Amino acid sequence: MQHSKDLKRTILLNPGPGTTSQKVKEALLVEDICPREEAFGDVMHQICDGILEIGHGKKTHEVGLFVASGTGAMEAALVSAIGPSDKVLILANGAYSIRMAKICEQYRIPFTNIGSFGEYPDVSDIEKKLTHGGFTHLAMIHHETSTGMMNPMEDIAKICQKRDVKLIVDAMSTYGAYPYNLEKTPVDFIFSSSNKCIHGMAGLSYVIFRKDRTEELKANSRGFYFDLYQQWNNLQVKNQLRFTPPVQICYSFLEAINETLKEGVSNRWSRYQSNWQILYDGLTSIGLKPFLDRDHESKILLALDLNSKENLDFDDLHDYLFERGITIYPGVIPEINTFRVAVIGDLYAEDMHQVVNHIKSYFES
Fold first, then answer.
1. Given this model, what pLDDT does residue 1 score?
2. Which pLDDT does position 5 carry in this prediction?
């Protein structure tokens, strides 16, 4: 007997998992299959090909899949890319770059931080540090979702190429929406997860790496589960992941990839920017103040100062909106009381106007 369930559509303004399309949800309902079957191995290859096509990297890059959150991909990239005699400079201007440093500490990987929380990077300072610091790698967050800052990835990539430094990029909340061209931009390692800007369900993460880094990966890795070379190579040789994948999530992610390619990354990027602008204009018009200068905003996420409004309580605002099918997200900026709204997901202009109207009604009431 078949059963159907009417699903209420919710507007998720947290930075992933985001609002998913009906087809992505429906793709979870597939026939049971053993993940060791050849047919399912083909699905995994289709996912990898689609990920690379999104970033224009099929000619230059490979991809390793992991059953993990985005932090798993971060760990896999760091412990696989950086060898025992290497040293990494971490652009540390937000909560998620601090997480990179904690992973390096855990694995005793030599590192140095540059930058401070919420500070826009000075590219010339980074170049000076790379020139004299003996660094082999630079690791950075592209879009720092603690603040909403978009770091100058392309400029930093050029410096790394000039100094023969390998670049590791956290693209957790950009890949699938930001128009990457990996054939042209010198990025050695870049990672994200299924539930961010490709609009899939949570459960998979991935690390993309340059083809000419394969032998280094084979020699470098300090991990076991998060061994990027072994994870990638096993799929090539045995047509399956080393460890059990989330079967239904994979089918759903493939649908999300196909929807991303159908919409087109440039079109999705325009939609994100338009949605962000509606939120920015609407929320600033009622007196809420952004944490960042406008020039440094990613136009993916907006961090807002709760002290903009007297006696504004995040939990009360959250609950008011949650009852109306909208989710906002708490802030993580030290010593500043903020909350966040992101436009990641299957969201459109009418959703943004609805959010703004409900927040206005909250303050009016």
1. 39
2. 64
